[in-house]
Amino acid sequence: MISFLIYDPFLYIYHHFINPDWFSSVLSLKETELIAARTDAIVVAEQLQKMKDSAVAQSGLFRLSALIPSVIIIPTLVAFLSMIIFRAKTLETKA
Hints:
The protein is mainly α. The chain has 4 helices and no strands.
């Protein structure tokens, strides 16, 4: 939960104030990759438009998509692995 409280505001500030044009860089990189792969210009334009549409559609769900891995999945995995290690050490000391 603590990492999410640090991570989420940082990304918001970064994407809206520090580098609001970051997605243009992503689009330029993708366009360069597609052109280097000798992709047809129509396909390049379609792919870039899909990326733009996807970014708009997902922007509202960004915080939820960041919350799930950082607050639920990763801590659960860390707790599970810690439990396995702790249990193994406990069994060693009892033996």
